[in-house]
Amino acid sequence: MGLSEVIRERRSVHKFQQDRPVPLDVVAELLDAAVWAPNHKLTQPWRFVVVHGEGRKRIAEVSRAVNEKREKDPVKSKELGEFFYNKLMAVPMFVVVLMREDTQLAVREEDYAATSCVIHNFGLLAWERGLGMVWETYGLLHQPGFREAVGARPGEKIVGSLHVGYPAAVPPAQARIPASRLLTVIGE
After folding, report:
1. In which band, very low, low, confident or very high, does the pLDDT at 130 lie, cut at 50, 70 and 90?
2. Residues in contact with 134: Cβ distance below 8 Å, sequence separation at least 6, in sequence order
3. Residues 70/78, Cβ–Cβ less than 8 Å
């Protein structure tokens, strides 16, 4: 499959096969290739935390607790908490991407862009290998309990929680505006 085809066919996957674990060595291999992203001054500010198997309970429990607090009715609170617990437990593997935040704004922005490229590279490489992924940036990432569960250090930003697994369903493509309609050319 050519790169252009992989880019056009890749989808954000939200439903995964439950009986097919993702091999850790495959994820490590994909991450090793993904880090070859453009990165100004080669700061390489990223690191990765893989959460799978029973380790997923750490994240799911935090989600349950956070979501239970959103609802005042005790019955609805438990239902909401259980819903989000089960939703996260249905994800075979999480790859949490963290970025060291530089004190200089320009460097921090360049590092964020580079880390985003690493995530996109990973998604394309995963798709090429038959793995689905969705890049999540939900509010849970900012909760102290989540940061603690994944070992986020002071001065690190969680850029995303990548939900990874073999697709149970692949959503259809959504139309894109052709770049030609968004292109401005200045020749003089």
Report:
1. very high
2. 12, 13, 14, 162, 163
3. no
